[in-house]
């Protein structure tokens, strides 16, 4: 058994080596850099993904407005979870082939950080620095617990049911039919017959 650095497999390193070359990833199809943020995060995480993107947008706005006291500290749990969500998304966006499954590792931090909002609503306290009639109306009718908790939870259930039906049954409908057909073909032929399945 020859164990050297040349035959050592380090999966994250292999992932980076393969995906850093645009010729490798281009063979699987190329995508725009914004695909993860605009399509894949909302597709995978529906309401929670949109809440995460909106929360990150608010955080960037506060940073640009010099509202540093309203930002999470770098060593806090919230800061750690935000980095664990958006650092991988940004890094993966530089790869020109983007698939939703690449974002599966952000599931845990995204759920830990944003799932409570399905019960508590978007904001449990007034989030704006200055008070104005328009901001107070926005808080009262959109952001506060009474206005946002139930609709968010209903949306989350609705989208999960719809996407489960679509991706779990409609999108994968041919897989079961193919497996049943192959099973019948194999049962009808002698065991010495070789059967090939060619897919595109």
Automatic annotation (TrEMBL):
<protein>
    <recommendedName>
        <fullName>Mannosyltransferase</fullName>
        <ecNumber>2.4.1.-</ecNumber>
    </recommendedName>
</protein>
<dbReference type="Pfam" id="PF03901">
    <property type="entry name" value="Glyco_transf_22"/>
</dbReference>
<feature type="transmembrane region" description="Helical">
    <location>
        <begin position="43"/>
        <end position="64"/>
    </location>
</feature>
<keyword id="KW-0337">GPI-anchor biosynthesis</keyword>
<keyword id="KW-1133">Transmembrane helix</keyword>
<feature type="transmembrane region" description="Helical">
    <location>
        <begin position="76"/>
        <end position="95"/>
    </location>
</feature>
<feature type="transmembrane region" description="Helical">
    <location>
        <begin position="155"/>
        <end position="176"/>
    </location>
</feature>
<dbReference type="InterPro" id="IPR005599">
    <property type="entry name" value="GPI_mannosylTrfase"/>
</dbReference>
<keyword id="KW-0256">Endoplasmic reticulum</keyword>
<keyword id="KW-0808">Transferase</keyword>
<keyword id="KW-0328">Glycosyltransferase</keyword>
<dbReference type="GO" id="GO:0005789">
    <property type="term" value="C:endoplasmic reticulum membrane"/>
</dbReference>
<keyword id="KW-0812">Transmembrane</keyword>
<comment type="similarity">
    <text>Belongs to the glycosyltransferase 22 family. PIGZ subfamily.</text>
</comment>
<comment type="pathway">
    <text>Glycolipid biosynthesis; glycosylphosphatidylinositol-anchor biosynthesis.</text>
</comment>
<dbReference type="GO" id="GO:0006506">
    <property type="term" value="P:GPI anchor biosynthetic process"/>
</dbReference>
<keyword id="KW-0472">Membrane</keyword>
<dbReference type="GO" id="GO:0000026">
    <property type="term" value="F:alpha-1,2-mannosyltransferase activity"/>
</dbReference>
């Amino acid at each position: 058994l020859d164990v050297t650095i040349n035959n050592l497999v380090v999966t994250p390193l292999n992932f980076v080596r393969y995906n850093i070359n645009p010729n490798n990833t281009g063979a699987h199809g190329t995508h725009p850099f914004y695909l993860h943020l605009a399509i894949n995060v909302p597709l995978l995480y529906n309401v929670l993904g949109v809440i995460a993107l909106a929360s990150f947008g608010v955080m960037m706005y506060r940073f640009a407005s010099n509202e540093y006291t309203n930002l999470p500290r770098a060593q806090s749990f919230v800061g750690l979870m935000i980095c664990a969500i958006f650092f991988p998304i940004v890094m993966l966006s530089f790869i020109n082939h983007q698939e939703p499954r690449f974002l599966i590792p952000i599931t845990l931090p995204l759920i830990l950080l944003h799932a409570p909002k399905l019960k508590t609503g978007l904001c449990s306290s007034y989030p704006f620095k200055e008070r104005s009639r328009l901001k107070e109306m926005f808080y009262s009718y959109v952001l506060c617990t009474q206005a946002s908790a139930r609709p968010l939870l209903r949306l989350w259930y609705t989208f999960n049911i719809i996407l489960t039906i679509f991706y779990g049954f409609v999108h994968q409908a041919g897989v079961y039919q193919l497996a049943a057909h192959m099973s019948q073909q194999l049962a009808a032929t002698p065991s010495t017959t070789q059967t090939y399945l060619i897919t595109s």
